[in-house]
Amino acid sequence: MARVVVDVMLKPEILDPQGQAVQRALPRLGFDGISDVRQGKRFELEVDGPVDDAALARIRQMAETFLANTVIEDFSVKVES
Amino acid sequence: MARVVVDVMLKPEILDPQGQAVQRALPRLGFDGISDVRQGKRFELEVDGPVDDAALARIRQMAETFLANTVIEDFSVKVES
């Protein structure tokens, strides 16, 4: 069984209030030197069977239609070793 | 400027209703062959200055005290090339 990771992040041009809240809280908590924070989602999928090109194409389609809102979000698909 | 990624996932023994909802929805949407889904958070931090051992130690402390709830969540810190 293989694990495929789909990361979904807001597009760079889309405001990220969650990430901004984290970034602004850090200095108050004593952590300096972080100039920007973006927060997104990580999906870990356990895939039955081999992760071949066909399986990856299906997962990419799944991410595009269901896991990410591609109007405002970018996604990336990675096979985890 | 370097990017450091902090991934925060629920511990394996903690129930993940969000991931389960995604997993149960997939066959209805025509995607088969995914036996488990876990959903977590991904933080992308833009770090001022070099990402040396001291900076990574600070970010690990930040993740432990602030980004993750280590009672129920695991985290990993990665430097993105």
TrEMBL record, chains A, B:
The keyword Nucleotide-binding applies. This is Phosphoribosylformylglycinamidine synthase subunit PurS. PANTHER family: PHOSPHORIBOSYLFORMYLGLYCINAMIDINE SYNTHASE SUBUNIT PURS. GO terms for biological process: 'de novo' IMP biosynthetic process. One of its GO terms (cellular component) is cytoplasm. Gene3D superfamilies: Phosphoribosylformylglycinamidine synthase subunit PurS. Part of the FGAM synthase complex composed of 1 PurL, 1 PurQ and 2 PurS subunits. It comes from Actinacidiphila guanduensis. It comes from the Bacteria. Pathway: Purine metabolism; IMP biosynthesis via de novo pathway; 5-amino-1-(5-phospho-D-ribosyl)imidazole from N(2)-formyl-N(1)-(5-phospho-D-ribosyl)glycinamide: step 1/2. The keyword Ligase applies. Part of the phosphoribosylformylglycinamidine synthase complex involved in the purines biosynthetic pathway. Catalyzes the ATP-dependent conversion of formylglycinamide ribonucleotide (FGAR) and glutamine to yield formylglycinamidine ribonucleotide (FGAM) and glutamate. The FGAM synthase complex is composed of three subunits. PurQ produces an ammonia molecule by converting glutamine to glutamate. PurL transfers the ammonia molecule to FGAR to form FGAM in an ATP-dependent manner. GO terms for molecular function: ATP binding; phosphoribosylformylglycinamidine synthase activity. Pfam families: PurS (PF02700).
